[in-house]
From TrEMBL:
It comes from Mycobacterium scrofulaceum. It comes from the Bacteria. CDD domains: NPD_like. One of its GO terms (molecular function) is nitronate monooxygenase activity. The lineage of its organism: Bacteria, Bacillati, Actinomycetota, Actinomycetes, Mycobacteriales. This is Oxidoreductase.
Length: 325
């Protein structure tokens, strides 16, 4: 069963589902698994590790995968874009920063550009930069984003904006899409597919500790919080308008909302955090997941997740063959 949309036709894929390029999580095996199952897999380019990027592209073993970059970080390591473009990726996704001059280089290389937006202004700038696909990300999403908008209201706003300014440009919904119900809702809101992170985080192909999986499977969306505390202890210089959704734990009980106190104790907090990461101690270490974490029941292969998601969405939409858009 497939759901046919402008996204599937543009990329020549079977299902309108794209793997979120989660930094340090969406490696080559996961990206390849999503692509092989009929979606589009994106490797998470992360914060500037050229060796990691090379290894993960190699682990994709020739599958048609793309790559996502944190744009403000890419500006400090522009050579990573060259390394990715040399792999002839299926797409490059840019998020969380100024799109230029990267957009021009990506388009000049003949590679599709996916641009993520958290506001209508972000979406306008993405369309002006010539993005081939725009991702509308609501605050429900895991990892980094903004609290400004929810997926349910942002998606139709961006869909209407794209229809007005660049008819034919596909829009993806991101944030809270965890099963077929979320995919069906995204399509009903006018999106051409979904960018999915948290659900694929809970796969054996993801670069995730089994201890983190175990902890997340008993959690609910109520236990997640948007915070800057982890950026401080990881010494990541994120722009102030962004924060990250993470699963609550004793570390956040102490430091979330207490940025001044954390800054004063930063040396000790950084050491504690790094020790916790090494020990896989998730009372302190970060689990960056979205509100959809409460819908995770077990760790499953990416291919099984994708097939079930599409089947459930098609049933909800009451279409036995395809959804034409």
């Amino acid at each position: 069963m497939s759901l046919d949309t402008r996204l599937t036709r543009f990329f020549g894929i079977e299902h309108p589902v794209v793997l979120a390029p989660m930094a340090g999580i969406s490696g080559g095996r996961l990206a390849s698994a999503v692509t092989s199952a009929g979606g589009l897999g994106l490797v998470g380019g992360g914060y500037g590790d050229a060796e990691w990027l090379r290894r993960e592209f190699d682990l994709a073993e020739g599958a048609s995968v793309g790559c996502g970059f944190i744009t403000w970080s890419l500006a400090r390591h522009p050579e990573l874009l060259d390394a990715a473009l040399q792999r002839r990726p299926a797409a490059i996704m840019l998020s969380f920063g100024e799109l230029q001059p990267f957009a021009e280089r990506i388009r000049a290389a003949g590679v599709p550009l996916i641009a993520q937006a958290q506001t209508l202004d972000h979406a306008r700038r993405a369309l002006d930069a010539g993005a081939d696909v725009v991702v509308a990300q609501g605050g429900e999403a895991g990892g980094h984003g903004m609290t400004a908008r929810s997926t349910f209201t942002l998606v139709p706003d961006v869909v209407d904006l794209a229809a007005e300014r660049s008819p034919g440009t596909p829009v993806l919904a991101a944030g809270g899409v965890t099963d077929g119900r979320g995919l069906a809702a995204a399509l009903a809101l006018g999106a051409d597919g979904a960018l999915v992170g948290t659900r694929f985080w809970a796969t054996p192909e993801a670069l995730v500790s089994p201890r983190a999986h175990e902890r997340a499977l008993t959690a609910s969306g109520d236990q997640t919080v948007r915070t800057r505390a982890y950026d401080l202890v990881r010494r990541l210089d994120w722009p102030p308008e962004y924060n990250a959704r993470a699963l609550g734990n004793p570390f956040l009980d102490t430091w979330h909302g207490n940025q001044e106190g954390l800054a004063e104790s930063l040396t000790e907090a950084v050491a504690d955090y790094e020790n916790a990461v090494a020990a896989e101690d998730f009372d302190t270490a970060a689990i960056l997941v979205g509100e959809g974490v409460g819908l995770l029941r077990r760790v499953r292969p990416a291919a099984d997740i994708l097939a079930e998601m599409v089947e459930q969405a098609a049933g909800i939409l009451n279409r036995t063959a395809s959804v034409q858009r």
